[in-house]
Amino acid sequence: MAGALQIGALEAALAANGLCLRGWVFPDAEAAPELAAGGAASAIALIGHEGGAFWRVFVAWHQTRAGAADPLDTWSKAVIAPLALRAGGEAVFPSDRPWHPFQKWAMAAGGLKPSPLGILIDPVFGLWHGYRGAILFGEAPLGVPRGMSADDVPIHRCDACVGKPCLTACPVDAFSPDGLAVSRCRAHLKTEAGQNGCMISGCMARDACPVGREHRYSDAQIRFHMTAYS
Ligand code: B12
Ligand code: SF4
Ligand code: SF4
Q: Which of 46, 111, 149, 187 is deepest in the core (most CB within 10 A)?
């Protein structure tokens, strides 16, 4: 049952934190996540960020909590969990195990597809977007759109990408059709070249993509994510 917080108000509260509702998923019974309160979710609101919109809000929060472990995950929980409660749902997070299939949800919610790098590509924001949480509802709140019309299904930008520069930009050739060779990438990041390259200016493969470049994260945000990943 939906709580007091209506969807429009939820969207406004997320926007105040640089976050947004990235879409809705209505899972089949066999793929429906279980609710802590019992039963299974019939609707999932996917929450994320488009570009680095949340960064300034997060940095202001972090300045008052120096030394917090996993600060971005902690901030995401501090923002999203109370909103989920007020909306009558349960919050789940991409960093919590067992991992919920956030990328599968994003594909179902927004028609996104994986880039050759594994990260999903958005037609507008390119590779510069991510997910900060989701709200599971036992019963879909009123007024939730039940799906995309054929006109809303985005064109997959990678299909039309000539040369696919993302695949040739990595200095250690860490991407193959099998995916990212994580250990090769991480080994490079420990070298002097990696410390002065990808660790400072970000993953060169991600940076080579021409889609949504105006939404590229700030240098500070990129360094934060690289440090967390390496
Ligand atoms: C484990 C993990 C990793 C592992 C990947 C290990 C591996 N080879 O699978 C490591 C630590 C290497 C990793 C790295 C990164 N990750 Co990661 N990762 C995850 C995590 C926590 C779980 C993935 C998973 O297994 N899910 C379980 C399955 C059941 O879910 P699924 O949706 O069906 O799974 C899909 C993904 O696993 C995907 N996939 C498979 N192999 C790989 C490899 C990579 C590198 C990625 C990104 C995805 C991916 O395909 C699956 C089928 O659709 C997710 C969050 C989440 N809960 O999903 C983030 C997530 C996939 N990661 C994400 C990101 C952004 C990254 C980084 C770019 C982080 C950064 N530095 O900014 C790097 C990539 C580094 C690079 N050089 O490209 C984002 C992707 C957003 C998007 N636009 O698609 C997610 C969703 C987290 C988030 N908060 O948004 N990641
Ligand atoms: S460079 Fe081309 S193929 Fe690679 S992620 Fe961007 S659009 Fe897709
Ligand atoms: S971070 Fe650097 S080494 Fe790792 S995959 Fe990206 S370009 Fe390659």
A: 46
